[in-house]
Amino acid sequence: MTTIRLGLAANAAQFTLLVVVNALVGGVLGSERTVLTPLAEREFHLDGYTAALTYILAFGITKAATNFFAGTLSDRYGRKPVLLAGWLAAIPIPAMLIWAPNWGWIVAANMLLGVNQGLAWSTTVIMKIDLAGPERRGLAMGLNEAAGYLAVAATAMATGALAAQHGLRPVPFLLTAAYIALGLGLSLFFVRETRGHARQEAATRATAGGDLATSQVFALTSWREPALSSASQAGMVNNLNDGLAWGLFPLMFAAAGLSLTQIGVLAALYPAVWGLGQLVTGPASDRYGRKPFIVTGMLAQAAALAIFAVADTSGMWSLAAVLLGAGTAAVYPTLLASISDVAHPGWRARAVGVYRLWRDGGFAVGALLAGIVADLAGIRAAVWTVAALTAASGLLVAARMYETHPATARNTPRHDFHRYPRHRDS
Fold it and tell me: What sequence ranges are listed for the domain Major facilitator superfamily (MFS) profile (predicted)?
C-alpha cells in the first residue's frame, strides 16, 4: 500500500505534471483571445458590441455552472474522472470553430469551452491543493495559475501571428486541437487520483465540521462566511474586468489602427504579466498573508482600467496592460489560497467549486454589462464603469475580509462550523 504524504516536495512529480496539464488547459482558452472578436466582425459581420460578446457570455455562464459541479463531482467520484470529462468535452471545439457556418456554432463551441475550462481547470486546482498540504498553498496556486495564464498569453500571441500570416481560420485553431490531444493523453495515462490526500489531511486536522451539506457550503462561500464570501465577490469582479479585456479591448485597439499582430502582442501582455507575477505573489502570500495582496491587487486593476479608458496609443495601453496584469497576479492565487485556508478538507473541493462559480460568473456579467454600456455610450464608458466596480470591490474586501493564512492571522474571527448539523451529502 502506497503511503500518502502531503507537501510539494513529496509530490513533486505529480504536481509538476499537473502544472503542465493546466498550461494546456490555459492554451485552449488562449487560442481564442486574439482571433474570435475580429472573426465576429470580419466573417460574421456582427456590428454591435453586445452581439460580438455573446460568445464570452455563453462561455462565462457555462464555465461558472460547471465549476460548481466540478467541486461536487470530484468529492463524490474522484478528481481524475472529472479532469478526463473536461478534456473529452473539448474535443469538438477546434472543428466547430474552423467550419462554423454561422455565429451560433461559435457560441456553441464556447459553451463546450466553458465545460472544458470549468471541469479541467477546477480539477487541477483542487488536485494541487490536495497535494500541497496546508503550508505552501500560496506557492501551489501561484504555480498553477502562472502556468495557465502564461499559456493563455503565449497562445494569444501565437494565434495573432498565425492569423496575420494565414488568416483567421483554420490555422490558429489547429494549435487548439494539438493542446487538447496532448492534455487528454497526459491526463489519461499519467495523472493519478489525489482524493486520498484530502482525506489524509482531514484525518489529521484538529477541527471538526468536515461533513457539511452542499447547500451549507454554498451559503458559507457565497455570503455567510466573511472571508469566503469576500473572496467570491472579488473573484467575480476580477473576471468581470477580464471579460471586458477579452471582448472589447481588441475592438478598441483595432479602431485605433493596430494590426492583428500588434493586437496579439497587447492581448498577450496582460496575461503574461499576470502569469509571471503569480510566481511571486503566490509564495509571498504564504509569508505576508492573503488580504494585503487582494486589496492592493483590486485597486491596481481599477487604476489600470482608468488608464485604458483615457489612453489612445499602444505605448500607454502597454503600460496599462502591465499594471492590469500585476494587479490580477496579486489577486488570483491569493483568492484561491484564502478559500483553501478556511474550508475544511472534507468540503474544500465544493467550496472551491462555489468560489469559481461566482468568479467565472464574472465573465458573463462582464460581457453583458460591457456590451450594453459600450452599445449605449461607447467602449470607454464601459471601461470606466468596470473600473469603478473594481475599486469598490477592493474597498469591500478591505472592510469585510479577515486574514486567513494561519501563519499570519492573529485573533481574527472564524466562522463557527460546529453549529451546523452534520451531513454526508456531497
Answer: 1-405
